[in-house]
Design brief:
mainly alpha
Length: 263
């Protein structure tokens, strides 16, 4: 267990704090990425609750004394987010590409929080939730990451024109960038699954997602809430991938490593 505040955890914490502040200011959830049924009883109260959880867990990730509690709470919160808001949409519309991308995006954020939780469990977690933490938890998190990467990659490949519309005008071959980033997610998933340069693969994936955040969404921040929320969600996705890469920090950049290894 290493509780050093590394850049990946700091970024992930900052994004959660940002989502929490945005939710509290707007009194709403993170738009289509965290969509709740509008007719749901207590909608506003639930939106404030979600925002408060994001803010408090984000703050908790910054300190050693609260890291275990915050990572546990954030993992459970994001797990419910996926199970209640994203998984049903995928089952109801498995042929809709948006349902694949939506699950993949939030799934990668969940993966990042799971890696944090798996590597920073408390005694209670080891005794009662051993299948979620330690080596078993880390294996499950990495497998989820491998599943989610192609889910976002396929959106770039099948909806290339739509994705290309978000690529800045000053970049050439905008459609090519959409196809390249989609293909790169498939390659990264395959490399991690096979244990072939997994640290490099996960890190490059995180960097690619980070560049997408900065190049595509940062310039639009001044346009309002939608772009701001998209920027934070995109940053959370890149942060989740970065946290997965951090689990391979003891592996050489061009080294091989099994999915399951000591943490």
């Amino acid at each position: 267990m290493d509780q050093t505040l590394r850049p990946a955890r700091a970024l992930f914490a900052a994004v959660m704090i940002g989502l929490g502040i945005t939710g509290l200011v707007n009194g709403d959830v993170a738009l289509v990425w965290q969509q709740l049924p509008k007719g749901l009883p207590g909608y506003t109260a639930l939106a404030y609750l979600c925002a408060s959880i994001e803010l408090l867990t984000g703050l908790g990730l910054l300190f050693k004394a609260t890291l275990t509690l915050a990572s546990r709470a954030l993992f459970l919160f994001l797990l419910l987010w996926v199970l209640l808001l994203k998984l049903p949409a995928w089952f109801l519309a498995p042929g809709t590409i948006e349902s694949w991308g939506g699950f993949g995006e939030i799934g990668i954020i969940l993966t990042g929080s799971w890696c944090l939780y798996a590597m920073n469990p408390g005694p209670w977690d080891r005794q009662r939730l051993g299948f979620l933490v330690g080596e078993k938890g880390l294996l499950a998190a990495r497998l989820l990451f491998i599943v989610c990467l192609p889910m976002i990659g396929i959106v770039h490949l099948l909806e290339g024109a739509a994705v290309a519309s978000f690529v800045p005008d000053y970049l050439p071959f905008r459609l090519g960038w959409a196809y390249f980033t989609g293909s790169a997610s498939f390659v990264a998933a395959a490399a991690i699954l096979c244990g072939f340069w997994p640290r490099l693969a996960a890190t490059l994936e995180a960097l690619m997602l980070g560049f997408i955040t900065v190049l595509c969404w940062a310039p639009l921040l001044s346009t309002g809430r939608t772009a701001c929320t998209a920027f934070l969600i995109s940053a959370a996705i890149s942060g989740g991938a970065w946290l997965v890469a951090e689990t391979y920090r003891d592996t050489a950049w061009l080294g091989r490593s099994k999915l399951l290894r000591s943490v």
